[in-house]
Automatic annotation (TrEMBL):
<feature type="transmembrane region" description="Helical">
    <location>
        <begin position="97"/>
        <end position="113"/>
    </location>
</feature>
<keyword id="KW-1133">Transmembrane helix</keyword>
<feature type="transmembrane region" description="Helical">
    <location>
        <begin position="67"/>
        <end position="85"/>
    </location>
</feature>
<protein>
    <recommendedName>
        <fullName>GDT1 family protein</fullName>
    </recommendedName>
</protein>
<feature type="transmembrane region" description="Helical">
    <location>
        <begin position="133"/>
        <end position="158"/>
    </location>
</feature>
<feature type="transmembrane region" description="Helical">
    <location>
        <begin position="35"/>
        <end position="55"/>
    </location>
</feature>
<keyword id="KW-0472">Membrane</keyword>
<feature type="transmembrane region" description="Helical">
    <location>
        <begin position="170"/>
        <end position="187"/>
    </location>
</feature>
<dbReference type="InterPro" id="IPR001727">
    <property type="entry name" value="GDT1-like"/>
</dbReference>
<comment type="similarity">
    <text>Belongs to the GDT1 family.</text>
</comment>
<keyword id="KW-0812">Transmembrane</keyword>
<dbReference type="Pfam" id="PF01169">
    <property type="entry name" value="GDT1"/>
</dbReference>
Length: 192
């Protein structure tokens, strides 16, 4: 169950204030059709996180447990620092939403926006850390939806009232705690 809950919470926190959340807000304001946008977010996230999860699973099979744990610890520290930096929506991503219908625009924009994003990297790391591949993917996808669906449904109202600095700090703290745990695991493996 940890392989589902931890990824859900980490990605939900990391996603607050992320560029894909800003993208969800732009798409919601533009189209005013929440369900095609929510479906587009779901499909794009599943596709993106499946690819990231496969990469994480592959990495976990190629590296020794100790090496993997040290890499995970360092990666979690890097993502913790990254979580403190606010994202801005790229102009090309905003234009894409104006060209197509809500589902297609959301699907394409979210998939592209997630490539190399901190939540995709977190998915790679979490899939490498946990043996429960499907639970990690479902958890990271649920985390994305927990952060983005309220923005789509409530639009500007919710996004302008969230304490983004506090939420970014909580996300960074979550990643830092994961780094400490991975470092502890690496130390334990190394001392065996």
């Amino acid at each position: 169950m940890e392989a589902f809950v931890v990824p859900t919470l980490i990605v939900a926190l990391a996603e607050i204030g992320d560029k894909t959340q800003l993208l969800a807000l732009v798409l919601a304001a533009r189209y005013r059709k929440p369900w095609p946008i929510i479906l587009g977010i779901t499909v794009a996230t599943l596709a993106n996180h499946l690819a990231a999860g496969f990469l994480g699973h592959l990495v976990s099979e190629l590296l020794s447990p100790a090496t993997l744990a040290w890499i995970l610890a360092a990666s979690f520290v890097a993502v913790a620092a990254w979580a403190l930096i606010p994202d801005k929506l790229d102009e090309d991503e905003a234009r894409l939403g104006r060209r197509y219908g809500p589902f297609v625009a959301t699907l394409i924009a979210f998939f592209i926006a997630e490539i190399g994003d901190k939540t995709q990297i977190a998915t790679v790391m979490l899939a490498a850390q946990y043996d429960a591949f499907v639970l990690v993917i479902l958890g990271t996808t649920l985390g994305m939806l927990l952060a983005n669906i309220p923005v789509v449904l409530a639009g500007n109202f919710a996004a302008n009232r969230l304490p983004l600095t506090l939420i970014r700090r909580l996300a960074a703290l979550s990643f830092l705690l994961m780094a400490l745990y991975a470092g502890y695991q690496a130390w334990q493996i190394g001392s065996l």
